[in-house]
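Incident log, support desk, overnight shift.

02:14 A customer reports that sequence design results differ from what the structure should imply. Their input is reproduced verbatim below. On-call engineer (initials T.W.) acknowledged and began investigating.
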């Protein structure tokens, strides 16, 4: 890993470019999100000055604090589990939520957004490998869940799907998961043509994710450095 943020950013940008070229996709269709959880305000400002303006946070209180101390035109993505007592903060600050997986939370968010006079773009988090320990809804329930959200909660603008990689997966299993994701996404887009966002890929697998059709990659430590 390079010593400084600028070199890491250049390195990752080149890898994104190469992966897009290989996948015959436009770089404009892949949005880099710098995952800034547990990173300082200084690191966020430094990344911003390099031209990064999409950041991802996992904790509502941290988001609340950071939004107030950083440039106003940053686009904030909430990517962590959503606790119901934190819904108000998320509704106030986030531009995107990647981790919607419970109807109860959708309702609370929608109500909080009504109060704030805002709307938010949402992705449904899917547990593709059906790991019991992991967040996300079962792939068989995605369409029903999405129909419900779409019909009932007008402050939630449904945009697509989000996936977390399995940790310590073999290369073969990873390829299998990516295939399942691509298949699920094409079924999903048939039902919801406007929901073509696919949030997939972290530091370890963003190049494969771009080949699998990812449109948002979430990169933390390999871009911003070790989390404290
Ligand atoms: C922390 C986190 C990331 C980034 O992980 P890195 O390994 O630091 O790249 C991506 N997505 C989610 C949901 C995360 O919580």
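02:41 Re-run completed on a clean worker. Output:
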């Amino acid at each position: 890993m390079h010593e400084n943020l600028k070199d890491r950013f250049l390195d990752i940008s080149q890898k994104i470019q190469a992966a897009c070229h290989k996948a015959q996709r436009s770089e404009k269709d892949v949005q880099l999100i710098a995952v800034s959880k547990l990173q300082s305000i200084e690191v966020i400002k430094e990344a911003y000055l390099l031209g990064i303006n999409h950041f991802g946070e996992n904790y509502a209180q941290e988001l609340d604090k950071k939004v107030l101390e950083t440039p106003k035109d940053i686009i904030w993505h909430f990517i962590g589990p959503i606790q119901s007592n934190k819904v108000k903060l998320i509704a106030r600050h986030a531009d995107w939520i990647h981790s919607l997986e419970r109807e109860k939370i959708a309702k609370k968010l929608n109500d909080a957004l009504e109060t704030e006079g805002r709307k938010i773009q949402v992705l449904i988090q899917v547990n593709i490998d059906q790991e019991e320990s992991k967040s996300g809804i079962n792939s068989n329930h995605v369409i029903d869940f999405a129909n419900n959200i779409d019909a009932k909660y007008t402050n939630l603008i449904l945009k697509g799907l989000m996936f977390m990689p399995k940790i310590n997966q073999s290369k073969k299993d990873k390829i299998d998961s990516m295939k399942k994701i691509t298949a699920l996404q094409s079924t999903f887009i048939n039902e919801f043509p406007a929901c073509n966002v696919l949030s997939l890929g972290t530091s370890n697998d963003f190049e494969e994710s771009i080949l699998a059709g990812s449109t948002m990659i979430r990169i933390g430590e390999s871009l911003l450095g070790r989390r404290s």
